[in-house]
Specification:
The model is unreliable at about 135-149 (pLDDT under 50). The N and C termini lie far apart (about 60 Å). The protein is built from seven helices and no strands. The chain has helices at about 10-20, 30-45, 55-60, 70-80, 85-105, 110-120, 125-130. Helix 3 (about 55-60) runs antiparallel to helix 4. It folds into two domains: about 5-80, no CATH class; about 105-149, no CATH class. The protein is mostly helical.
């Protein structure tokens, strides 16, 4: 799809087939896409090497959406795919640090209460207590007192 590397990659046909399989709901039928991609590649074979796009963003800027609609869609998809999982890993790392901070900052009694609530989450609260105390349980002792948090 990136014009500079079309002749270099021996797996261009397999890569295109894989793209068509994965993103078939976003692009036209295979019978229309394959010739369009071939026209796109042939267009750049005639150009000077210095003017041929070498990145997805450059190729996207050079692609006319009216002339090559499916190539434009595929280049847009390729341009927005993450190259690594660093962002999601960073999010999970931050969440882990936050949870560790929250666990260390709450009191021992509250932590014990939350642990009991998690373990015995099937505690039945009578309807009368639910109405009277807004169904807020505070698990502060082994006897599960009802009260506001």
């Amino acid at each position: 799809m990136i014009p500079k590397y079309c002749d270099v990659s021996p797996n261009t046909a397999q890569d295109l087939e894989r793209l068509l399989e994965i993103y078939q709901e976003y692009i036209g039928p295979r019978a229309a896409v394959v010739p369009e991609v071939q026209r796109w590649e042939n267009k750049w074979k005639k150009e000077d090497v210095s003017t041929v796009p070498s990145s997805v963003i450059e190729a996207l800027c050079a692609c006319h959406a009216d002339i090559y609609p499916n190539v434009y869609i595929l280049l847009t998809i390729l341009g927005t795919l993450p190259l690594s999982t660093a962002t999601s890993e960073r999010s999970f790392s931050t969440m882990r640090l936050l949870k560790t901070y929250l666990r260390s900052s709450i009191g021992n009694e509250r932590m014990t209460g939350l642990a009991r609530k998690t373990v015995s989450s099937k505690v039945q609260v009578p309807p009368l207590l639910r109405q009277r105390h807004n169904a807020t349980l505070f698990f502060s002792s082994p006897h599960f007192a009802v009260g506001a948090i």
